[in-house]
Amino acid sequence: MNKLFNLTFPERLQITELDDIQTLLVPLRGHDVCKYVKKRSSVMQGALLASHQDNDIPDVHAPKSGIIKEITRTYIEIDCSKEAQATALENAKKFMEEALAKGEGQETLNSNTNANIEAKPVNLLELTPKDLIVALKNLGISARPFTRPCTTFILNGLNPEPGMCYAEELLATHAATIKAALLLIQRLSNADKYILALPEGNKTNIEGFTNQFVKAVYPISLARPLITKITGTESSKDVTMVHLNSVFNLGLVAQSGLPLNKTIISVQGKNFFTYIGTPVSTLLEQVNAVPQDKDTIILGGFMRGYPLSSTQRGIDQNDCAIIHEKYGTVPHLTDNPCINCGLCVNICPMRLRPNMLSRYAEFEQYNNCHKEYIELCIECGLCGYVCPACRPMQQYFKIAKHQLGIVSRQHTIQQPV
């Protein structure tokens, strides 16, 4: 077995919590920035920064108190130094005193309408399922993965792909957080069976889940292979699979009742619990990684991650790994012609013909891609890994799917095969 594909580690890798983050670059994905959020204005932790019209895209909050330095289309930069936090706290106290002196109502003293107000906890267990969905969006969590109609809900307790190493430690040390998430999931989902997929030999037990053990070799951690292994059928009808980091984030909000402000991420084989918006450059410094000219910084795992054009980018709640790939350590992808070796056909877990799919996609024959069942491609990256011609297989497939209007489902899957 190729060691790269092994999703477990001989020893649990400790999760280090990072608190002393000086600058945050809070990501935006088409969000509308709130009118009161302006450059050089102060903001308190948990205050609403931006909202989105799409109900499946959660709102954005200030992960930490500080001063807003910059607002762009893709991020909000917050100065979180001790001086900036002290200024924000002082401004918040002054605002509260003035508001109370004017006799202003509760609407004014709300973190969703004023950045000078720190967020207050919400008791999510008291809400109806409909109100819970709205509340979770307001707290930075999309309820979509947990509300899909299904009879079987699978929590994927495996590391999603090579380059990610947090799963074992997260399950061992944060079982209470996962349990808190399950209480909310059971209110949102109509599933009657909750399964925790674990590597063989793992001793985790979380009340409410039935353990199912699998051989932790990539790509078993992806939705379709895992569902097939656990259910014994290739049909994903009535089955929902959600990755551990998504459930962990839900559990953090369930426990605190406050907007999500931190997440888990693996960086060069080390795990960190850090603020959303922590710059990639800051995380690389934590592992003494110094990118040189022509090096590649990958956001995501070895098989499905994508290169960054700049390390001045803040992490999002769904970012699970950062990899520093030194120049010359892996072959460079290029549009070489297919040599008909058949290695990609042999390794494809979905029994597709990546050699033909990549040709059709390369020459924009998208109807032929559809005839070759490109919608069943899980974008595992194995075909590109074994390709001796170094063809950009996964990139071809993504372009073809985009042209055909096929949406990639990276975290959940519920469409019948």
Multimerization status: single chain
Instruction: Say how many strands there are.
Output: 17
In CATH terms, what is the architecture of the domain at 18-119? Beta Barrel
Provide the gyration radius in Å: 22 Å
- Widest beta sheet: strand line-up: 1-14-13-17-15-16
Overall geometric form? globular
* Poorly predicted segments: 408-417
Amino-to-carboxy terminus distance: 29 Å
What does this structure look like?
The chain is α/β, with parallel strands linked by helices and 417 residues long. Among the domains are: 102 residues, RNA polymerase II/Efflux pump adaptor protein, barrel-sandwich hybrid domain (OB fold (Dihydrolipoamide Acetyltransferase, E2P), Beta Barrel), CATH 2.40.50.100; 62 residues, no CATH class. The protein has 13 helices and 17 strands. Strands 1-14-13-17-15-16 form a 6-stranded mixed beta sheet, with helices on both faces. A 4-stranded antiparallel beta sheet has the order 2-8-7-4. A hairpin with a 2-residue loop joins strand 13 and strand 14. Helix 5 packs across helix 7 and helix 10 crosses helix 13. The C terminus is likely disordered.
